[in-house]
Design a protein that fits this description.
The complex is a heterodimer of chains A (112) and B (107).
Chain A: E1 5-7, E2 10-13, E3 19-24, E4 31-37, E5 44-50, E6 53-57, E7 65-68, E8 75-79, E9 88-95, E10 102-103, E11 107-111
Parallel strand pairs in A: 2-11
Antiparallel strand pairs in A: 1-3, 3-8, 4-5, 4-9, 5-6, 7-8, 9-10, 9-11
Chain B: E1 4-6, E2 11-14, E3 19-25, E4 32-38, E5 45-50, E6 55-57, E7 60-65, E8 70-75, E9 84-91, E10 95-97, E11 101-106
Parallel strand pairs in B: 2-11
Antiparallel strand pairs in B: 1-3, 3-8, 4-5, 4-9, 6-7, 7-8, 9-10, 9-11
The chains are: A mainly beta (112), B mainly beta (107).
């Protein structure tokens, strides 16, 4: 499978715990995006990378959220001290330049 | 004001109907535009790009009006399988998604 893969598919955690998600993009893609989606809403932009450089982070994102893309390959998204409002689907997408994006299946986070 | 705005719907139409969705965007410097389709509990997938001159792909026609900053999607001869959420996407160096318009095609 050469598509975008995300791990885990589902994560249940208690409020206050830290969680980390992983995304493996399509290998030749230089751009990698993270989005968050809740029911009835479109994907909300969180941050994106061009190769290993993080180009922009949403102003809506608190300091509890951090993302990395070491060596311009896979990426991780960490949420510290999770809150119930963090419950959502976290989607990763990759693309080449500003061309179309290919999405992974997402990580569904539930914070209890 | 949201960067990309869409009517959330739902649009309930019978099979064979023609349905149109509009989307407005706020950043006049937006560079490229897309429509994505998202099925329930699935990830978004590209439906089509939107070009300045308008473009067609089978039953789907997309148009862009830069002066008015809106994008449209027309679906002709609706099929049951067209039932999904249609997301308008605008590229302003990063790709920004609208909230989506839900379409339900009934027999």
């Amino acid at each position: 499978d050469t598509g975008v893969s995300q791990d885990p598919r589902h994560k249940i955690t208690k409020r206050g715990q830290n969680v980390t998600f992983r995304c493996d993009p399509i290998s030749e893609h230089n751009r990698l995006y993270w989005y968050r989606q809740t029911l009835g809403q479109g994907p909300e932009f969180l941050t994106y990378f061009q190769n290993e450089a993080q180009l922009e982070k949403s102003r809506l994102l608190s300091d509890r959220f951090s993302a990395e893309r070491p060596k311009g390959s896979f990426s991780t998204l960490e949420i510290q001290r999770t809150e119930q409002g963090d419950s959502a689907m976290y989607l990763c997408a990759s693309g080449q330049g500003q061309e179309k994006l290919f999405f992974g299946s997402g990580t569904q986070l539930s914070v209890l | 004001r949201k960067e990309v705005e869409q009517d959330p719907g739902p649009f309930n139409v019978p099979e064979g109907a023609t349905v149109a969705f509009n989307c407005t965007y706020s950043n006049s410097a937006s560079q490229s535009f897309f429509w994505y389709r998202q099925d329930c509990r699935k990830e978004p997938k590209l439906l089509m790009s939107v070009y300045s001159s308008g473009n067609e792909d089978g039953r789907f026609t997309a148009q862009l009006n830069r002066a008015s900053q809106y994008i449209s999607l027309l679906i002709r001869d609706s099929k049951l399988s067209d039932s999904a959420t249609y997301l308008c996407v605008v590229n302003t160096d990063k790709l920004i998604f609208g909230t989506g318009t839900r379409l339900q095609v009934f027999p």
